[in-house]
Design a protein that fits this description.
The complex is a heterodimer of chains A (212) and B (335). Chain A is α/β, with parallel strands linked by helices and 212 residues long. Chain A has a 7-stranded mixed sheet. In chain A, strand 3 and strand 4 form a beta hairpin. The two termini of chain A are 25 Å apart. Chain B is of the alpha+beta class. Chain B contains 11 helices and 6 strands. In chain B, strands 1, 2, 3, 4 and 5 form a 5-stranded antiparallel sheet that branches. In chain B, a hairpin with a 2-residue loop joins strand 2 and strand 3. Chain B is elongated, with a radius of gyration of 45 Å. Classes of the chains: A alpha/beta (212), B alpha+beta (335). The interface between A and B is large, with 68 and 42 residues.
Chain lengths: 212, 335
């Protein structure tokens, strides 16, 4: 029953987002702090885009300070986006495919220069055209962004996304933290990209419930 | 208010916990209080049966409720309390160290189980004191009652004496009038065959007075004798039912009720405290419970999820870089 609720909600959210922009959609999943379900939601959305909606999807891990997706996908090699930005490997060499249609780009292993990577990324060093071409039409990119308040890079890396989804943990994240996160987005002029939010860990949540 | 209700539903265990905690503490506290012992004395305050109720001037001696009201007042009077303490000491009753004469007012409960029956209940922390208090109250009441009873009988006899004197005076007048009539009507007693109505009227009135005096004297003698018997009997607790102080009962019998009351009060207090705590915390809580709250802050549509999205579905999928790169290259070639 719970699994159904999650599926329905995420699927509804994804249809909602795809309705905003069908082509070239790059969804950034962010939050105010850590542990609110941001990474899990990003991964789950990418999987559902692939499995249930037939969209080729690339999941990019941008949380250089606390990468966890590699472990979850049981990827042995530590190479990832960081190494690609250093020029040590090409992007295609560090791309993983956990399941057909889903591409995963881990943050990498050499993460000491996260600020530099961020600067490099927002200077548009990512070959989006090539990535889109590789994934095919209707593909979606999902970013696992760093948190906006707990990390200084979150708001900067949000520039890579076309649309932002903010994850907030129910009964935990305070209104002050959310306001601070929004302030960070406003400082980096990314506020208008925030189009949806998800309140996670809600007790007795109703399927696909959302409030405008 | 809505947030508080929401909060109460989410943190119902706070209410349960505080209710159980305070109720438990309350019950534990009740165990700490010393047991109370109860001694009862019964006073039958009825008016003696031989007294005439139609005598409007008779003092109203003993309606039980009047006595109860008076007793409830008198136990709060300092002089009475001092007298009671003196009586307790005189009876060699050991008084607890922290016991005060002021406690007497709380120690006594008076009730009426029957129209003229006053039940004196005395509670104390020791059986000896409970019985001593009860007995002292019994003695004081009995003494007071007997004094009042004696005074009452005296008033009755005085009234009877006055009525007898009035009747005697009346008899003297009618007797004189009869003698004067006979003297002025010498033939009235001759038996001429013609009825002398005036003579018959005077003779009848005279006889009536004699009869009434006899009746009243009889009543007076009856009251006098009966009162003597009554007073004597009262002193031996024979005429009126008077039950001296009983052997105190431990309050253990009513312990369960006492614990239940303590527990109930504690539970109510605990529930209230829990609600107050919930109200305070909910008022200060700035987190989000519902999507609409978050939506109001962010001004964007907001979804709810019962928990963080599960990763179980993809956790066991292992991808190798080699395989991934190969597939990517294949796809790139296709394009």
């Amino acid at each position: 029953m719970t699994a159904t609720i999650i599926k329905d909600t995420e699927t509804t959210l994804l249809f909602d987002l795809l309705g905003l922009q069908s082509e070239g959609l790059r969804i950034g999943v962010t939050s105010a702090g850590r542990g609110e379900g941001r990474t899990s939601l990003a991964a789950s959305m990418a999987e559902k885009l692939t499995q249930e909606m037939g969209r080729a999807t690339m999941l990019i891990e941008l949380d250089f300070e606390n990468p966890t997706l590699g472990q979850r996908y049981q990827i042995a090699s530590g190479m990832g986006l960081a190494e690609a930005l250093q020029g040590r490997v090409t992007l295609t060499q560090v791309l993983h495919q956990p399941m057909p249609g889903l591409w995963f780009l881990p943050a990498g292993a050499d993460l000491k220069q996260s600020v530099r990577y961020t600067s490099s990324l927002i200077r548009d060093s990512m070959p989006w055209q090539e990535i889109n071409r590789m994934l095919g039409p209707g593909s979606v990119v999902v970013f696992d962004l760093p948190p906006l308040v707990d990390s200084a890079l979150g708001a900067q890396l949000a520039k890579l996304a076309t649309h932002l989804v903010m994850v907030v943990e129910a009964n935990h994240t305070t209104q002050d933290a959310v306001n601070k996160a929004v302030a960070r987005l406003e400082e980096s002029s990314q506020r208008e990209k925030l189009v949806r939010s998800v309140l996670t860990k809600v007790k007795r949540a109703t399927p696909a419930r959302f409030s405008k | 208010m809505a947030k508080f209700i929401e909060y109460a539903f989410r943190r119902w265990f706070w209410l349960v916990f505080s209710t159980i905690l305070v109720a438990g503490l309350s019950i534990a506290l009740s165990f700490q209080s010393p047991p109370q012992y109860l001694s009862e004395a019964t006073l039958w305050t009825d008016r003696p049966a031989f007294l005439e109720y139609d005598m409007g001037w008779a003092p109203d001696l003993t309606p039980a409720q009047n006595q109860i009201n008076r007793l409830n007042q008198i136990v709060n009077v300092d002089s009475f309390q001092e007298a009671m303490v003196a009586q307790l000491k005189k009876n060699n009753v050991n008084l607890p160290a922290n016991w005060k004469a002021k406690d007497l007012a709380k120690s006594f409960k008076f009730s009426s189980t029957y129209q003229n029956l006053v039940l004196v209940r005395s509670t104390a922390v020791t059986p000896e004191l409970a019985r001593g208090q009860s007995q002292a109250m019994f003695d004081a009441f009995k003494e007071q009652y007997n004094t009042q009873f004696t005074n009452y009988i005296q008033q009755v006899l005085t009234v009877y004496d006055k009525q007898i004197q009035d009747l005697t005076d009346q008899y003297g007048k009618t007797d004189q009038a009869l003698n004067e009539y006979i003297a002025s009507h010498p033939g009235s007693l001759s038996g001429s065959g013609v009825p002398d109505f005036q003579l018959e009227r005077l003779k009848s009135q005279n006889q009536t007075n004699i009869d009434q005096i006899a009746v009243m004297k009889g009543k007076k003698e009856l009251v006098r004798v009966q009162s003597q018997v009554g007073l004597t009997a009262a002193q031996n607790t024979l005429l009126r039912v008077e039950v001296p102080a009983s052997v105190p009962n431990s309050s253990e019998g009513s312990r369960i009720i006492e614990l239940a009351i303590y527990g109930l009060i504690g539970a109510i207090v605990g529930l209230c405290l829990g609600m107050v705590a919930l109200a305070l915390v909910s008022n200060g809580d700035r987190s989000f419970f519902r999507a609409k709250e978050l939506s109001a802050v962010l001004n964007v549509p907001t979804y709810e999820m019962s928990h963080a999205p599960a990763m179980a579905q993809i956790q066991n999928v292992k991808a190798t870089p080699t395989q991934s790169v190969q597939m990517a290259q294949e796809r790139s070639v296709e394009r």
